Amino acid sequence: MSTKNLWQICHKKDLNNNDLTRYIVKLLQEHEINIKQAASDLNISVHRAHNWYYKDIGMTALDLFWIMREYEFVRQAVENSMMIDFR
User: Fold this and answer.
1) Which of 23, 27, 49, 79 is deepest in the core (most CB within 10 A)?
2) How far apart are CA 51 and CA 55, in angstroms?
């Protein structure tokens, strides 16, 4: 999924946390990062990561912060979606 798609997701009227979480999980899966690896890298429980991957439960702002800090490709996608908005 491209940065342009993230921008479209983030700027539709009824954006919710689950939409953003689904997009980030898709990015993680495209980079072959499974639940256990994500949980280990972010120092969170596997159960919490499982909720994002399979139960459609949105991540918290702190989870997003940790993911952006740990994975450069997620940080770039989020930053690029914000840059499109300001142009």
Assistant:
1) 49
2) 5
Rounded-to-integer distance, Cα 43 and Cα 37, Å = 10
pLDDT given for residue 87 in this prediction: 41
Distances (CA, A) of 54 to 45, 59, 83: 14, 12, 30
For Cα atoms 35, 38, 44, give the angle at the middle one, nearest 5 degrees: 100
Contact 75, 69 (CB under 8 A): yes
What distance in Å separates the CA atoms of residue 34 and residue 29, rounded to the nearest whole number? 7
Does residue 35 surpass a pLDDT of 50? yes
The model's pTM is 0.72
Report the alpha-carbon distance of residue 32 to residue 19 in Å, rounded: 20
